Amino acid sequence: MRCNVAGICLIMMVAGSAAAQDSPPPVTSNVIYDANSVSDLSGGVRRGSAYQGMLRWQTSVDGERVLGWPDSSAFFNVMATHQAGPSTLTGDAQGVSNMAAPPGVRLEEAWIQKNFLDGRLSVLAGRYDLNSEFYHLNTASLFFNSSFGIGAEFAQSGQGGPSIFPATSVGTRIAVKPAPNVVLRAAILDGVPVDRSGGSTAFRGGDGLLLVYEMAWLSRPEPAASVQDHHLRIGRNAGLAPDQGKLAVGGWYYTAQFGELNAFDASGQPRQQRGSSGAYLVAERSLYQSSTQPQKVISGFVQLGAADSRVNRFSGYFGAGLTATGLVPGRASDELGLAVAIARNGSAYLRSQQIVGVANQRAESTVELTYLSQVSPRLSLQPSLQYVMHPNTVTGVGNALTLQLRAEVAF
Prior knowledge:
CATH superfamily: Carbohydrate-selective porin OprB
Helix content: under 10%
Number of helices: 5
Number of strands: 18
Structural class: mainly beta
Largest sheet: 16 strands, antiparallel, barrel
Distance between the termini: 18 Å
Oligomer: single chain
Order of helices and strands: HEEHEHEEHEEEEEEEEEEHEEE
Low-confidence stretches: 1-21, 223-233
Strand content: over 45%
CATH topology: Porin
């Protein structure tokens, strides 16, 4: 066997030999490619089309069977992206494509997790995407607009954003499950992503820390036998069935200094403020399930977020949507979704723009309609139509209508 990528043969051999046994393999690895075409049909900055591509190599490791460390796991995610995305077409602020990323190859996640107290306590350390657990709703993940993953008020905070795709940072996450349907999470992360201008580094002077916390109330289907691995009852790769309902409240705080958007010192420089903070509430719920055809489900979600308007452009965010699964006979896995995302400028940002002679609208609003077709277990196709009102909130830029078509292949 010839290897073109260092280590991939070893992983394939370990996983392959274990697959022949009854138990799950100790190391699982998969490669996923996403191809996305996007066209600006009207409005925005300019008409035209663009292409995005992203290759992901994801590897999960059972720490007990590979390292001899009970109740532990590890995860690695390497990404290669090309063609940064459609922002030059639509000119929007929230991001009509959640695949948008600088071209290149990078390590997105690399962490190890250890569980204690029979799965009621989980500790994770390493390079970590906080949006995989915090501010996360399964129902909203159907949509392409970036704000449905994490609200714009948090996604565009800090120096280079929080630790989310496509720029993650290093830190530690602790999760506690005090009751069967309650999870408390807290994370301490470098306040600036690892990949930044000037090279990759972590915990450089002036970075400060990002503190994130969340309390979630969950409703999952019975029976508890849906758990795939008793070692992973909490935290990443928990193997739990999808939530039927979730309500979560959380908050975040950066410890570094930030320049205020519309306040200046005696020398005319932005006045420095210690810290930047925000809070959010997210909820999702299964609203209807057919008694005769259980695969037919209608679900809804709501997102609310607020941030300190003195140092953050977006002081508020609202998102909501509905999804329907299994509406087409014989297409039990297909999903139809309609959602709206509204990012609201803060008053300090609007005043700062007025000073430099730029007229802005109060908010950017996007409506998205999408349909996911699960062609086969390893191939899906998904078109998405988005209408962006007041792109980037700049007065004079026409409302944009964009059409995307995404194909995902798993190897």
